[in-house]
Structure formats: C-alpha cells, structure tokens
Amino acid sequence: MNGTTPGTAFRLVGIALLSEEFGRMDVPLEAPSDGTVPDPFDLPHGAVVTLALSFRTAVDVDGLVYTETRVRDGAVLSTIRTALGGYRAGGPYEIRMPPERLPNGRAVGDTYEVTGTFSDAAGHVLAAERHRFRLCEPGRGAAHPVQAAAPTAP
Q1: Which string of DSSP letters, residue by residue, matches 95-139?
Q2: Fewest CB atoms within 10 A around its CB: which of 44, 53, 63, 146?
Q3: What's the Rg (C-alpha) of the chain?
Q4: HSE-CB for 118 with a 13 A CA cutoff
Q5: Quick check: 136 and 22 in contact, CB under 8 A?
Q6: What is the pLDDT of residues 59-68, one digit of tens each?
Q7: 71-122: per-residue pLDDT in tens?
Q8: Which phi and psi (to 5°) does residue 127 adopt?
C-alpha cells in the first residue's frame, strides 16, 4: 500500500532523500499494479541522507507517529518509531528526520526493503508506503537511480 489508505483524510504527498552528495531525490510512491514493491533504486555506500516526508491532512491529527521498518534478506534490521506531534487540517507539511549515514563496505551491498507507516495516537494506520534501495559504490553507474526532483516554482 502506498500513499493514502482508503477512507482516511490523511495523504502522503511525497518522500525525498536529501544529501550533500546527490542533492534532493524523490522516492516513487506509486506501487506496481500487481501489489509488489517497486524496483530498487541505487544509493551510494556511506552517504549521509535525511528523509523528508510530505503530507496533507483534511482533519486535525493528534499524536502522529512515523514508524520505519528496514529489512534485508528477510531479516528485520531495525524499526524506528518517531513521534511527530499534532497537526491541524491543511498542509502540505514536510517533516525532516535526523540525518543518517547509510551502511558502508562490501558486505552491505544488498537490497533493503523499507516500510514507512503513519499512525495516529489511537494506533490507526493513516498511510503507509514501501520502497527498496540497493547500496552501491559511490561514483558507479546506477542501474535504477532515483531521479532528482524537478525544480519547484518560487
């Protein structure tokens, strides 16, 4: 499931990775129609990235929480739950997570599957998305690179 959960007033507008190494790159939100996870995109080993989450809400939301689970080779590597607070109806809002250094070295060049879920204080899932990334050596050609975001109008 990507973006908006049917029947909710919360809508995930976008996900971007921010890095001094490669700028701002949008993560595709659209899943293939067969329900599988989109093709992985390539990121350089050891890059420092900040996850930017953009969303709108048609109603006030109290106790918004973002939970990210990262899996490699079928094993859960980490689950991070971040309390984002309350939001009034409106948006788009953009939340930037703390910077993170991606794993580095030859042994980490696998594909990672990430599931991000937004929920409210009562635990109701408001939106979820899934994407995959593959770590590659910096400077190497990427088979499926994330496309840089289009410039926004002032």
Answers
A1: EEPPPEEPP-SGGG-SEEEEEEEEE-TT--EEEEEEEEEEEE-TT
A2: 63
A3: 16
A4: 30
A5: no
A6: 999 999 999 9
A7: 998 999 999 999 999 999 999 999 999 999 988 877 667 889 999 999 999 9
A8: -165, 155
